Each structure stands twice: as C-alpha cells, then as structure tokens.
Amino acid sequence: MKLIQKLYKFSIIGLLFLTSCLTKEIEYDVKFEGEKIVVHGFISEDSGAEIIVKKTVPPNKPSFDNGVSAAEVFLICDDTLKIKLTETEAGKFKTPVNFKANYLSSYRIEIQAIGMNTVKSAPQILPQKVKIDTVFFDTTLSSNQPTLVLKFTDPPASGTAYYHKILEWSEGEIREEYGNSVFLDPFSVIPDDNFNGSQHSETVRVDLIKVNYITENQYDTVILDSVQCFLYNLSPDYLTFAKSYDYYYTSLLEPLFEQPYTVFSNIENGYGFFAAYSCDLYTIKVNRNSQKNKSAIPN
How far apart are CA 20 and CA 69, in angstroms? Predict the structure, then answer.
C-alpha cells in the first residue's frame, strides 16, 4: 500500500514537471540564409511572360517588406534573344505588347537586383495546345443550376497536367470567375494519371440565374448569356511544383508524424518557379428566354 502511495506521489510530481516544461516558452535562433529572390512566373502564346518578383524575409519577421527594389527581369529566347520585361506595377513584370511566344522556342528568365544574386530559371517549352472537345449543360439535377460538363482528349504522352478556368458572363460583364490564370491553384491541377491517352470530363455547377440581394427580403436577378471555358495544358515543371506543394501542405497538417517536404523550385540562386502553358477557349451560349420564366427565389 505504501509503495502504491509513493508511486502515486512520484507520478503527480512528474506530471507537474512535464506540464511546466510544456508551458515554458522556448527560445531559439531562427536560421536565415539572407535575402533571396522568389519568382512566380508563366509564359504562354496568348499572354506572353508574366512574372511576379519578391524576396524572402526572416521567418520570425513576416511583416518585413518582401518587395525587391530596382529589379530587372529578362526573357531569354533560345539562349540568343534577350527581351527586357516591363514592370506594370510593383513586383509584377510583363513582356511587351507585341511579343508572341511560339511552340518551337525555348524560354527562360533572368532577374537582376542590386545587392542580390542573379537568378536564372530552367528553360521552358510551350506545351502543345489541347483542344476542348465539347462543353454542355447537364440539367438532370436542376435546369437553372445545371452541371457544366467540359470534355477533352488527353494525348498519349504521360505526365501531362491540366487546369481549367470558368468565366460567367451577362450583358458584357463577368458575373463569376472560377480559377485564375496568373495564380494557378496548385491544388486544382489535374494530372493525367488516371486518363492518359483518353477522353476526360470535368464538371462545375453553374447558376444560370444569379440572385443579388438588396435587402433581406428584396433582391434582383441576373440571367447569364454565356459561359467561357479555358483549358490550360501545363509544362512538366509546374506539375512537379504542384505535387511537391501538395506534399508540403500535407506535412504541415501532421507536423508530429510527417517529415518536412521540400517544395520544388526550378530557380537557380533563388526560389519559386517559371513554367509554361497553352490554353484553349470554348464559349457556350445560354438561352436567356428559356430562363426568364423560371423561379430565381432561393430555397
């Protein structure tokens, strides 16, 4: 009995000691290798090169300015032609209006900034455009909230990846946008692992009648007149980046059990990526007259 009491006391003391250790603030030195350029960039036939340039900041100083002053961004074509990009706003650079990329050339970027190492990207070749086969509305579940179905045929080459963007239009204005061509969401990238060389379908729910509330009990409606569908075929480097970013994010969700995962970068002397894509567009019209007699009152 006395032995049990002693063990109980020792267990209580040990628990209190452990609690005090866990609640004590841990001080440590944050390792920071100095400022490095961070790149987020794409090149395509239609949009040219669009590059975002920032810099690293100490992990314990997230509020520090991450802008790069006096940066110069160059696009190198086939290791011969050198084109200087224009800074359209702070940290955002774009090729001249008359520039048009082609599918036979290789492109890479170089970035120079005072007091920082020059960074260079891996070369990129524009992937061949994959055409959208068809787009239609599936009204099986709802006629004014149909499922938009986008179909395309994947070429036999493995390792292809896609991304789609949807724009909903009414009377010359964009009413809704799904996806963004400048910030391609790595979590929304679609690898062809399960449909290589065959036809594939992507679906999105669309509200053909939009409800805009004025007050709690008063609203007006907008009927769509068309929907634009964009299909992006991405270069292999962006697929590698997207997969590594997914693994990295997953490791953050389980920090005690997952080992840290390094995000892929194809930028020498810096971080980030430079990738290429091609894009196909398909526009589907909406029969506005068929929608006018339908109820737009939300359930």
Answer: 46
Q: Rounded to the nearest 5°, which phi and psi values hold at 224? A: -65, 150
Separation between Cα atoms, residue 265 and residue 291, nearest integer Å: 48
Write the pLDDT tens digit of every residue in 3-49.
Answer: 455 444 545 444 444 444 444 444 545 567 788 999 999 999 989 99
Reported pTM: 0.80
Tokens of 188: 């929304």
Tens-place pLDDT, residues 143-164: 778 999 999 999 987 788 999 9
Topology of domain 37-126, CATH? Immunoglobulin-like (2.60.40)
State how far the Cα of 143 lies from the Cα of 137, in Å rounded to an integer: 9
Determine the Cα–Cα distance for residues 267 and 69; give it in Å rounded to an integer. Answer: 19
Is it true that domain 132-237+279-292 has CATH number 2.60.40? yes
